[in-house]
Amino acid sequence: MSIADMMIPGYNPEKQQQDNVQEGWPTEFPNPIVGIERKGVLTDNWNTLQFGALEAIKNIRLKGHKLMIIADETGRTENDVNMENQKLMQTFGDNGIYSIDGHLYSINNDTKDPFVKPNTGMFKRATQMNPGVQWNKGYYLGSTVIDMKTAIKIDAKPIFVKTNEHEFKKLNSHAHKDVLKKVTVVESLLEFAASLK
C-alpha cells in the first residue's frame, strides 16, 4: 500500500494549512511514533470503536506524534479490510482527525511470512513509507502477547491495552515473565494518550 492509499477522504493538505489556525491541526509531527494494533486498541473485534478512541487519536496527533495503525487481519479478505479501513478514515475525518502517517495490515496466517507478527516486516515497511519513523524511540500498543513480543523485537516501548482478559492472564503467566518486565499496562488508548507529553 502507498501513502496515497491511506489518505483520509476529503483531506486537502493546502486547505488544511489554510485552516490550521482555526483547526489547530499541526503541519508537522516531530514527536516519536505511536504504532497501534486495531483490534483491542482502537476497536473491538467487530470494528466498533473503543470508548474514547477517537479522542485519543486526536490527542496523540495534536501533541505532535507520528501515528500508524499496524494490524493483523488474519483470515480476512483484502477487500473487506480495505472497505473497513476507508470507513475508519472517513470517521477520522468526520471527527477532526485530519491525518495519520499510515495504515498497514497483514491478512496472512503463515508465521513464516515476514509481515505476520511477531515478524517485523510491516514495521520495516512503515519506516520505508515514512523515513522519520524511529521505532526505538516510539511505542507500539496492542492487546496480545504477540503484540508485546513484536514491540520488543522492534525495540519500541511495548504498551499492553487491557481489553482482552485471556491475553492479560497469558501475559502474567510464568511463561511470559520476561516479556511482562518490559511492558507497561494501560486500561485504554485514551489513558495512554493522556500520559503522553
Q: Could you give the topology of this structure?
A:
Layout lengths: L12 H6 L1 H4 L7 E6 L16 H10 L2 E8 L5 H17 L7 E5 L14 H9 L9 E4 L2 H9 L3 E5 L3 H7 L5 H4 L3 E3 L2 H7 L2
Parallel strand pairs: 1-2, 1-4, 2-3, 4-5, 5-6
Q: Which geometry do the CA atoms define? A: globular
**Any idea what the CATH architecture is?**
3-Layer(aba) Sandwich
What is the third-level CATH name, the topology?
Answer: Rossmann fold
Structural class: alpha/beta
Task: Give the radius of gyration.
Answer: 16 Å
Overall domain count: 1
Order of helices and strands: HHEHEHEHEHEHHEH
Any idea what the CATH superfamily is called? HAD superfamily/HAD-like
Q: How large a portion of the residues is in β-strands, by DSSP E?
A: 15-25%
Largest sheet: 6 strands, parallel
Q: Can you give the mean pLDDT?
A: 90
Helix content: 25-40%
Distance between the termini: 31 Å
Name of the top-level CATH class: Alpha Beta
Helical stretch tally: 9
Multimeric status of the protein: single chain
How many extended strands? Answer: 6
Strand order of the largest sheet: 3-2-1-4-5-6
